Amino acid sequence: MQTSHVIADKDFVVAPLDRRVFGSFVEHLGRCVYGGIYEPGHPTADENGLRGDVLELTRELGVSIVRYPGGNFVSGFDWEDSVGPKDQRPVRLDLAWGSTETNQFGANEFIDWCRKAEIEPMFAVNLGTRGPREAQQFLEYCNHPGGTYFSDLRKAHGWEKPHDVKFWCLGNEMDGPWQTGGKTALEYGRIATETAKVMRWTQDGLQLAVCGSSFRAMPTYGAWEYEVLDQCFEHVDFISLHQYFENYENEIDRFLTVIDDLESFIVEVAAIADAVAAKRRSAKRIMLSIDEWNVWYRARAGEQLRGVGWPEAPALLEEIYNFEDALVVGGALLVMMNHADRVKSACLAQLVNVIGPIMTETGGPAWRQTIFHPFAQAAKYGRGDVLRCKVETGSFRAGGQEAAPYLVTSVVHDPETGAATVFALNRASEEMALDVDLRGLGNRRLGDTHELHHADTKAINAKDDPDNVSPAPHGEARVEGGTLSATLKPLSWNVFQTLPA
Ligand code: AHR
Fold first, then answer.
1. Nearest 10 degrees: CA dihedral of 138, 143, 146, 149?
2. Residue among 173, 263, 324, 451 flagged as catalytic
3. Distance, CA 41 to ligand 1 centroid (Å)?
4. Which of 134, 254, 392, 493 could form a disulfide with 5 if both were Cys (CB 3.0 to 4.6 A apart)?
5. Domain 2-11+385-500, CATH 3.40.120.10 — does that match?
6. CATH tag for 18-381 (out of 3.60.40.10, 3.40.50.10420, 3.40.718.10, 3.20.20.80)
7. Which atom of ligand 1 is nearest to the CA of 96?
8. Are β-strands 120-125 and 167-170 bridged in parallel, bridged antiparallel, or unpaired?
9. Each residue's pLDDT tens digit, 287-305
């Protein structure tokens, strides 16, 4: 049996948690849009073809913001194709995913979906094959109140009110050789600067995210971030990080430490951004937007990655998640939450079918993959201030890594409701006796508790067994005074809400 002790003090706050950390991503890729959020004729679809069952699960997931329309797709995307009368929209080849894009779902339909799901939209602009002019025109189409060509065009298309999209990504993975119109850091830094300028001249108060490296193992990682930010530091608010976790070696110990790599990634990118600030003697802090992250390694080759023969909405990147993936997703959320002072936005990639927490059958049901559960619980209970914790716990080594703590935890206190929630991931393959001293919060009582555990780390949820991996109330928790005590199952994700007594 492992033992772990945690002290969390109400007055030691990392930062208020930005709700946009619980974001997701919808790309025109595979069955994410077509057969995912949009499927006219589906028994649950509304008059606009939006699938009701997917909307319901999206609300339950607690998603705050959704990035759209890509991803690699955006680097060949002409936004004008996706608006106006549907019967006049062009059918195009999508070079990113070897698919045929019908444009029957586009920017305005996405806004309608967001409003229905009570989600903030996040748009990405095409800086692969296009540039500042088209990005500015798209912004004017979306957000300008009226009286200009593009804003009046939106009205003529049936959307009278501006969409008021605040958060914009300046391209996608522009360092990647696979990107349509990929660029060097200098080329990209320049085009991002010029795009940011005209977008800001069009509207005040936008939040702009510049592309960081496609992943931490890119040969240009680090140098890319520095050069790009050195070009556009004055013009942007965020730099993006993309992180897909892999378990090709099928070693659970090593797999569970991929979240420590994420921690290093966050610390490194923040340090590079601060070095660019230091060069300018600037107090401005660039924030981090982890605008693509998830486990993704199985559906990542050959016909899983590109359509063959230009199909419409083929089944691409349909990763089936197991219980150990859910542990990693939960752990990654805790790492991001514990960096709430810099990580102000993050998008689980993606939302449905394509490396998604939600799966559907075209014409059939929708269900929750294993990774749905830790995300939904973090989004539900992760409200308020993240507290800085002192953690005493055992550690392990895996895959040549530094010592990794068995317990990964985050404690979030909501000053408005008084709730303080302890999230705890037990990475040990034995039980753990946990106590958490919630200092400065007075006498407490136990609120909701949840435990996600399965004896088989490879267990999955499937259409005919959708609740195989699903949370249960925790059987082993109590609160005395201001101390929470619990016994955590081996390899388990746990949530303990405490409330003022
Ligand atoms: O999310 C799938 C793809 O992964 C995105 O289109 C791209 O940005 C990343 O490489």
1. 0
2. 173
3. 29
4. 392
5. no
6. 3.20.20.80
7. 6
8. parallel
9. 999 999 999 999 999 889 9
